């Protein structure tokens, strides 16, 4: 079965990445799955590809369920270079990132059902045992997730207005102005950074204030990320942090931080 695993590795890694949102975590999941495959009795398995999908799916589901808020080093902050955003704007297709942001908002069972069925055409009969549900319940979870993807919050179309809100956020974070941060964050704002999810404007403000420690460490460029205002920070020309902001009615409702090196390399030129 190890040979079959290696043949399926590319597809399995793609599944793990969609599930976990990080290439590094996807590789961890594949390593865990590989160890399980090595120890398992596979003599009676008739469909290796389907069975391997199940193994990887279960590992990823466990990782998602085990995620919890924990202390970690906040990403190096991004600061403006002084150029006009129109001159700094990064014009590139960020559909993949936009989808990742939405996937991160789904519950683990919803995410697994949606990713496996809608993205990799895995039948609900095969998905159901992974989440201890009936096929009908798995179908309902995927449908619910699909609706959330379709109904995801739309940012303001006025990019200059988005930029001003984000600029106010970064200025307040550099100055350690907690109330200034609270003012530009929606009361139900969400900060997502890898395994961390922080909910609530004041709670997010408390975390975001840590950006002030790094305010002079890196220059950044304004970017349009899936129609949303964002910033990309680089060190020696190599991207090391990306922040995407969802702005509605003059307030930030979501901040998504990516520091996964491989993912940044795929998203940022």
Descriptive report:
With 269 residues, the chain is α+β, with helices and mostly antiparallel strands. It has twelve helices and six strands. Strands 2-1-6-5-4-3 form a six-stranded mixed sheet, sandwiched between helices. β1 and β2 (196-199) form a beta hairpin. α2 (23-39) crosses α3 (48-66) and α10 (178-184) crosses α11. The longest helix has 19 residues, at 2-20. The protein is elongated and about 60 Å long. The two termini are 38 Å apart. 37% of the residues are buried.
Describe the secondary structure blueprint for this structure.
Elements: H1 2-20, H2 23-39, H3 48-66, H4 85-88, H5 95-103, H6 108-119, H7 124-127, H8 135-150, H9 159-175, H10 178-184, E1 185-193, E2 196-199, H11 201-208, E3 220-225, E4 228-235, E5 238-248, E6 251-258, H12 261-267
Parallel strand pairs: 1-6
Antiparallel strand pairs: 1-2, 3-4, 4-5, 5-6
Helix pairs in contact: 1-2, 1-3, 2-3, 3-6, 6-8, 9-10, 10-11
Jot down its keywords:
six-stranded mixed sheet; 12 helices; alpha+beta; 269 residues
How would you classify the helix and strand content by structural class?
alpha+beta
**Strand count:** 6
What level of helicity do the residues show?
Answer: 40-55%
Instruction: Strand order, main sheet: write it out.
Output: 2-1-6-5-4-3
Give the H and E element order. Answer: HHHHHHHHHHEEHEEEEH
**Number of contiguous helices:** 12
What is the overall silhouette? Answer: elongated
- Content of β-strand: 15-25%
Contiguous uncertain segments of 5+ residues: 68-95
Largest β-sheet summary? 6 strands, mixed
- The overall pLDDT, averaged over residues, is 75
Radius of gyration: 20 Å
Distance between the termini: 38 Å
